[in-house]
Specification:
Immunoglobulin-like, globular, alpha/beta, Rossmann fold, 6-stranded mixed sheet, 28 strands, 8-stranded parallel β-barrel, binds beta-D-galactopyranose
Length: 662
């Protein structure tokens, strides 16, 4: 349970570095990330490396007993390089160049840019790969940030043509797979295939889906290009990348195959005001962040790299980039840190050490003000460091998860690519709603890849976005013993984004005898009621089956089908109804739940339990709640107490006779 910070020595006078390093050390920090945007200082002119200042900065940090995560600077190609190889720019969906002047202006497919990345990464890895202060490397910075996953450049088009050739072998196979006979879209040669942009009306979803897969693969290979070099020259160091929140533009499981640790950048208040869908929740959690937003990502990214998780950037105060940027309530910066530890983080690193007085992020807070005085966050981070230091030996088990959400990036994107109507419906938000209900029911959750070999270790599985009909997954699910809950649009597409021959849910019909013969999407505020008063919203499917539905609508459409332990939930539900449905289903399968209400969250790591209050009012943990999570009055609390004010935390260790949940 280490605490760190992001630092930009190149932003500050040389004389300040020692003082900064001492101050960081005094605060209790141990790990400092540097370097990820410093290309113009590392190579101010082509082929003239200037690494001495970086070495000096690393030495200063090292002398203060700090470890360094060194970032490769490839998210910010400098001006001279852009001029030298103008084909490196990415092109947006309107055909415009994403030009120089901020960051992430490169195209993943540019071969010339890849060569320059290889060159700078090799030079850095050779120079610093064995430095004793370097504990890890970060590749690039936030792949895909500012909608840069997909580029429509000439380089990308060429790479896509090649990708198609490898995937489909012949142009006839591609035409057939994509259904190009429709609207005379057939090609005679792979060279004729363009990127899916600038058409008069809707593009072929198969074309877009293939381009999404291709773009995701380009990030995988771009990342691998760097990790291969780093492993060769800096063996034994962790290689990480920092992912983002609420971001599904590429397959993070695939990129993680080459990483030691999936890290991510957590800005809970920014995410809420930028991405929040529910106004009441936006108000309630304005200064705390949504209770299930950070933990969803912890539980997802931890499972990208077999249990290893870091927070590379953590919000310290108001940020600069969301539509509104409120300040966190007192105590929240500490809570987010503890919450990350509760979900298995080995490191929580704050962004950034000192607020920059210049350029784009001068309105973004840090641990210190631009003049070096401590800002509010520094005080909370000092407390977090002290507490984590005290408890580090008592907390060493992995996060406990009795149930899992099987999360498919391709499935999420297939839903986005073709969504007839239902414009306000967001597949990721719906997945998070399911996650949120499970967390409110007191369960530990893993968010896992469809290829996870661990399915059998869970008591129940939830598949919110298994959109693509997948025989291999179905076969593995058929051996699963507990409840499997399939949601709308499961198995509704082939790998090429067409309707499966046997209709939805395609291969999943092997698990449950249902067949979708009509779907409808509903405008916001339209609510349908079943005979048991369940409210259905957004999307509904009519099922052909010999199974009897659990509930039925006035127009005769059934709702909620079950065959043995497999459930098909053929409509979307609002939060409250979803919670009831999951609770009922889990209880029927003897899976212990305890409704914690909207604001309280409890997370276990083996025998250690952590409770957090995200709500506006003080919460008193009740006896049944404490008992459910194995509280033993004789042992008491490791940290805090049963009264939790807003942003309050307590931690306890389960007694010997705790409930099966604990
Ligand atoms: C992240 C990024 C950082 C910084 C931060 C501001 O997305 O990695 O470089 O821009 O946001 O919140």
């Amino acid at each position: 349970m280490k605490v760190g910070v992001c630092y930009y020595p190149e932003h500050w006078p040389r004389e300040q570095w020692e003082q900064d390093a001492q101050h960081m050390q005094e605060l209790g920090l141990s790990t400092i990330r540097i370097g990820e945007f410093a290309w113009s200082r590392l190579e101010p002119v082509a082929n003239q490396y200037q690494f001495d200042w970086l070495e000096e900065a690393i030495n200063v940090l090292h002398a203060a007993g700090l470890k360094v995560v060194l970032g490769t600077p490839t998210a910010t190609p400098p001006a001279w390089l852009c001029k030298q190889i103008p084909d490196m720019f990415s092109i947006d969906e309107n055909g415009n160049t994403r030009g120089f002047g901020s960051r992430r202006h490169y195209c993943f497919s540019s071969l010339s840019y890849r060569e320059h990345c290889k060159r700078i990464v090799t030079a850095l890895a050779k120079r610093f790969g064995q430095h004793p202060a370097i504990s890890a490397w970060q590749t690039d910075n936030e792949y895909g940030c500012h909608s840069t996953t997909i580029s429509y450049s000439e380089a990308a088009t060429k790479a896509f043509q090649l990708w198609c050739q490898q995937r489909y072998k012949t142009i006839y196979a591609l035409n057939a797979a994509w259904g190009n006979v429709f609207w005379s879209m057939e090609y005679n040669s792979f060279d004729d295939i363009g990127p899916p942009i600038l058409a008069v009306t809707e593009l072929n979803p198969a074309h877009r889906f293939a381009y999404w897969r291709f773009s995701s693969d380009q990030i995988v290979s771009f990342n691998k290009l760097q990790t291969d070099i780093l492993r060769a020259y800096s063996p034994g160091r962790d290689i990480v990348h920092n992912f983002m929140g609420n971001f599904v533009e590429f397959d993070h499981f695939a990129v993680s195959e080459e990483l030691d640790v999936a890290t991510w950048d957590n800005y809970p208040l920014g995410f809420l005001t930028r991405d929040g869908v529910d106004e009441a929740e936006q108000q309630r959690y304005l200064r705390t962040g949504h209770p299930d937003s950070s933990s969803f990502h912890h539980d997802l990214y931890r499972n990208c790299t077999a249990g290893r998780l870091w927070l590379m950037e953590q919000q310290p105060g108001p940020v600069n980039w969301a539509p509104y940027n409120p300040a966190p309530v007192d105590g929240m910066v500490r809570l987010w840190g503890w919450e990350a530890f509760a979900h298995g983080a080995e490191l929580v690193s704050y962004f950034r050490w000192r607020q920059a007085p210049f350029a784009q992020e001068q309105m973004h807070s840090g641990l210190c003000l631009p003049n070096g005085d401590e800002d509010d966050a520094a005080r909370e981070v000092r407390q977090l460091c002290a507490e984590a230091g005290q408890l580090v030996n008592s907390i060493n088990e992995a996060p406990s998860a009795s149930v899992a959400i099987v999360f498919d990036y391709a499935g999420d994107n297939a839903q986005r690519i073709q969504q007839p109507g239902g414009q306000h419906y967001d597949p990721l938000s719906y997945t998070q709603k399911i996650y949120s209900a499970l967390r409110q029911l007191g369960l530990g959750v893993d968010v896992i890849s469809p290829n996870s070999p661990q399915l059998a270790s869970y008591k129940a599985l939830f598949l919110p976005n298994a959109t693509v009909s997948d025989d291999a997954l179905v076969n593995r699910l058929s051996e699963f013993k507990g409840p499997v809950m399939l949601f709308t649009r499961t198995g509704s597409k082939t790998v090429e984004c067409s309707i499966p021959e046997n209709l939805a849910p395609g291969a999943f019909q092997k698990l449950i005898n249902v067949r979708v013969n009509r779907v409808e999407s509903l405008p916001p505020h339209t609510r349908l009621l079943t005979d048991k008063k369940t409210t259905l919203i957004d999307w509904r499917e009519r099922i052909q089956t010999s199974l009897k539905p659990h509930e039925i609508c006035a127009d005769g459409w059934g709702f909620h089908y079950q065959q043995a332990s497999v459930h098909y939930i053929n409509a979307c539900l609002p939060k409250h109804d979803l919670l009831n449905l999951l609770e009922k289903t889990l209880q029927a399968a003897d899976i212990d739940c305890l409704n914690l209400g909207p604001d309280l969250r409890i997370q276990r790591r083996g025998n250690t339990c952590f409770a957090f209050n995200f709500g506006p009012a003080t919460i008193e943990l009740t006896k049944p709640q404490l008992e459910h999570f194995g509280f033993n009055a004789e042992i008491g609390f490791l940290l805090g107490e049963s009264t939790l004010p807003t942003a309050g935390i307590c931690i306890w260790q389960c007694g010997e006779h705790s409930s099966p949940t604990c």
